[in-house]
Design goal:
The protein has 680 residues and is of the alpha+beta class. The chain folds into 4 domains: 25-132, Gnk2 domain, C-X8-C-X2-C motif (Killer Toxin P4, Chain A, 2-Layer Sandwich); 147-240, Gnk2 domain, C-X8-C-X2-C motif (Killer Toxin P4, Chain A), CATH 3.30.430; 336-427, 2-Layer Sandwich (Phosphorylase Kinase, domain 1); 434-649, Transferase(Phosphotransferase), domain 1 (Orthogonal Bundle), CATH 1.10.510. It is 37% helix and 19% strand. The protein has 16 helices and 26 strands. Helix 7 packs parallel to helix 9 (391-403).
């Protein structure tokens, strides 16, 4: 083998490794590519961009802000980053690193891009206009679809809070123009909000930027909702009816007056203290000492009692949960404590939850690979303290998954409760999740039609087991490509039951004021009114099948003046009898018969009908998939245009933005959702 071929193979291997790493990063919360020119792979601009993006995260100061420019003329690259004011430095840098990699993946040749996560934003361009601008410029609207109770009162209290925070942020000084706070809204509902400007703005420009942002609220669908935000490269704000940030104390202003740190001298008229003065001083000091003792001793006693009570309550809570699990599992597991692992064992198995063992980031926390003392490989889900998954969801996952035994469901091996730590221990599935294959340009080639149809059938069998064959009727409520794992033989295993709902056998549907799941996979009746049933999972399955066949995510895109997502494209092709256009190009011309693939698309469209009654149940779906001779009914797309694109229900772009007069921005991907809903 020649040296040139070896170098080419090495480059290809490294490139694939980089793609794998980037694919495992969480999707951007929002992102857009600019149209101000493109660059080539080996150009000076590309080298400058790589240098800039590599250096930005390392140069961020303790206040989460940095901007820089590299290069000259047409090869100049300018970038600006800003992290939310309550985010710690290491978390900020990690967030910016991830955003940089995902933006380059999203915009592989464009010279301009903007995007970010909840904790940070990043923008780069081929000129300094993004650094020199003093205005809001591009802005994103993101919102929580749940309506606020008493919207007029809610908006009134929100307006007062935002105005107060703006005044505080403006006076934040040259290092951090950030303020956060909360106010009690109607029905004792707390509204939390941070507002922020880039610290290089003058107080007046910061004031103007936030005022302009507030002025766009009437254009944002977030008005009257329980949460929303407006994001620009120079300022942003957000509000929610649940806590999502850490309070940051305001920085005290520098002391006024004399800068000399030594005590000022007298005027020369002082007299030396007398003996009586000394006695008086001793008496005064003794009184002070007694006062200190009177204050400190009870305080210490209260602290000790509080700690002791907390420990006792924590042990009782832990015991109560274990007893609850015992009582629910009954005779299925003789000793539920055999499922409970010591935290020290899990910590050792995962090498203290090292990043090297991190498999990915779920909606409620990271997942780590571990090796138990007996050599068994496991996957450990470490629930975040502030993840939003409380004891209810934790009990759900332990109680439900421990009782489920099916080849297409991930097996729960145990759990751990230790203080604030809540861990779930699963069997290790080596090929990660379906989305990491399906939406990766390199790995997708491994999914021929035989494997894809096998995966679709396995998922269907797993859901049928949940809905019909297990002794419990379980609705998953968060079925998506990221929650389908692939074992060594590429068999699918449904995972993540933290959102599952348990039904009694005579129940057919339910209502909830807590909407959970992922945008793009939610059935309309669930996303809009909180109504869910087994048909909600059927809808999610239909979306997933379309993604598997097309190799495309169900996210929105712009085509002229209209917004399209995968479902609307599928229905359009169905009406025009061109459904073969949906098939992944990698499957065309393969050994897989086009007729079988088109039949699967037909079944998927039956699953995503808006009318719940028209959708088949999963048993019927499985029968359709396995029987070619069974005739299929005609799917109907009687969809309300206002809710067709619910996959993008939480984001749009303001038409008032100068940079978006001729183009629009859509959500960058399916977003996890946990929110409270008051059905109307």
């Amino acid at each position: 083998m020649t040296m040139a071929i070896q170098e080419a193979l090495l480059f290809l291997f490294l490139h694939i490794q980089v793609l794998n790493i980037v694919a495992q990063l969480p999707d951007l919360r929002y992102g857009r590519c600019g149209e101000n020119g493109n660059y080539t792979e080996n150009s000076t601009y590309k080298n400058n961009l790589n240098t800039l993006l590599t250096s930005l995260s390392s140069k961020i100061d303790n206040y989460g802000f940095y901007y820089d420019s590299i290069g000259q003329n047409t090869d100049e690259v300018s970038g600006i980053v800003l992290c939310r004011g309550d985010v710690q430095l290491e978390q900020c840098r990690s967030c910016v690193q991830n955003a940089a990699q995902k933006l380059v993946q999203l915009c592989p040749t464009q010279k301009e891009a903007i995007g970010g996560y909840d904790e940070c934003s990043l923008q780069y361009s081929n000129n300094q206009s993004i650094i020199e601008t003093q205005s809001l410029s591009v802005q994103y609207f993101l919102w929580n679809p749940a309506n606020a109770s008493k919207p007029e009162e809610f908006n009134q209290e929100l307006g007062k809070l935002l105005n107060d925070l703006r005044d505080l942020a403006v006076d934040g000084g040259p290092f951090r123009k950030y303020a956060s706070g909360n106010v009690t809204g109607p029905d004792f509902q707390t509204i939390y909000a941070p507002v922020q400007c880039t610290p290089d703005l003058s107080p007046q420009n910061c004031f103007n930027c936030l005022t302009d942002a507030y002025g766009t609220l009437p254009q944002c669908p977030c008005l009257g909702k329980r949460g929303g935000r407006i994001i620009g490269p120079r300022c942003n704000f957000r509000y929610e009816s649940s806590r999502f940030l850490v309070d940051v104390p305001l920085e005290a202003p520098p002391p006024a007056g004399n800068d000399d740190k030594t005590a000022p001298m007298g005027n020369g008229n002082e007299t030396a203290p007398t003996g009586n003065d000394n006695i008086a001083q001793i008496v005064q000091d003794d009184k002070k000492a007694r006062l200190v003792i009177i204050i400190i001793v009870p305080t210490v006693i209260v602290v000790i009692l509080t700690v002791c009570i907390s420990v006792i309550l924590m042990k009782k809570r832990k015991r109560k949960l274990v007893d609850k699990i015992k009582g629910t599992l009954g005779d299925d597991i003789s000793d539920v404590e055999s499922l409970q692992h010591d935290f020290s064992i899990i910590r050792e198995a995962t090498d203290n939850f090292s990043n090297a063992n991190k498999l990915g980031q779920g909606g409620f926390g990271p997942v780590y690979k571990g090796k138990l003392q007996n050599g068994q490989e496991v996957a450990v889900k470490r629930l975040s303290v502030d993840s939003g998954q409380g004891d209810l969801e934790f009990k759900n996952e332990v109680l439900l998954v421990a009782r489920l035994q099916h080849r297409n469901l991930v097996r729960l091996l145990g759990f751990c409760l230790d203080g604030t730590e809540r861990l779930l221990v699963y069997e290790f599935v080596p090929n990660a999740s379906l989305d990491q294959f399906l939406f990766d340009q390199v790995k997708r080639s491994q999914l021929d039609w035989e494997r894809r149809s096998k995966i679709i059938g396995g998922i269907a069998r797993g859901i049928v087991y949940l809905h019909e064959d297990s002794r419990l009727r379980i609705i998953h409520r968060d079925l998506k490509a990221g929650n389908v794992l692939l074992d060594a033989e590429m068999n699918p295993k449904i995972a993540d039951f933290g959102m599952a709902r348990l039904f009694t056998l005579d129940e057919t549907q339910g209502n909830t004021n807590r909407i959970v799941g992922t945008y793009g996979y939610m059935a309309p009746e669930y996303a809009m009114q909180g109504q869910f049933s087994v048909k909600s999972d059927v809808y999610s399955f239909g979306v997933l099948v379309l993604e598997i066949i097309s190799g495309q995510r169900n996210i929105c895109s712009r085509k002229g003046d209209s917004v399209e997502d995968l479902l609307s494209v599928a229905w359009l092709n169905w009406r025009e009898e061109t459904v073969s256009n949906l098939i992944d190009p990698m499957l065309r011309g393969s050994s897989g018969p086009v007729g079988d693939i088109v039949r699967y698309i037909h079944i998927a469209l039956l699953c995503v009908q808006e009318n719940v009654a028209n959708r088949p149940n999963m048993g019927e779906v499985l029968l359709m998939l396995s029987s070619r001779s069974l005739s299929l009914p005609v799917p109907h797309n009687d969809v309300n245009p206002q809710i067709l694109h619910f996959g993008d229900v939480n984001s749009t772009i303001s038409a008032s933005s100068k940079l978006t007069e001729s183009k629009s921005i859509c959500s960058s991907g399916n977003q996890d959702l946990i929110t409270e809903l008051h059905p109307r």
